[in-house]
Fold this sequence. Notes:
The chain has about 160 residues and is mainly α. It has helices spanning about 20-25, 30-50, 65-80, 85-110, 115-125, 140-155; strands spanning about 10, 15, 165. The protein has one domain (about 30-160).
Amino acid sequence: MVLNTSDSSSNSKGEVVVGGWFSKYPNWNLNKVVVILLAFVFLGLFFDLRYEHVDKLRHHTLAWIPIVYSGAMVIACLLGLSSWERQGRQALFYAFAVGIAVGLLGFLLHNGKHIISDLAEVLLAWVKPEHLSDHPPTLAPLTFAGLGVVGMLVCTFKPLTGITK
Length: 165
């Protein structure tokens, strides 16, 4: 991977500090930008899931779980960013970890006792173009698990501020 360092300089530690946007805003780093992007993703999921689950919400209270979690994560991301240097990063790590549980629970609820047949149907979609399924999407809930892993990684690793020579 090659980084454009035409706008860079060396610091006293012998690191090449990449210039550009982050050099103009020293309190911001790539980790915080990813958290903002994740907040927007959760906001989109909040509205989309409210629409997609509209029929199920009246009969199944568990259908509220991804909606409430998405809305809570928008708020958690913003609060976590405001206290990033104190405890915000650690709190966000655990909030993102809950996303893995939400994703796995949704996967089980969407597929019930027929996980293997649903996965086979997803794979058959590559050779059979028509959509004959009338049950919930098989893999969609795992989106929360994926977002949780990305968020946990962002909260775990220190931000890239430079490259060692």
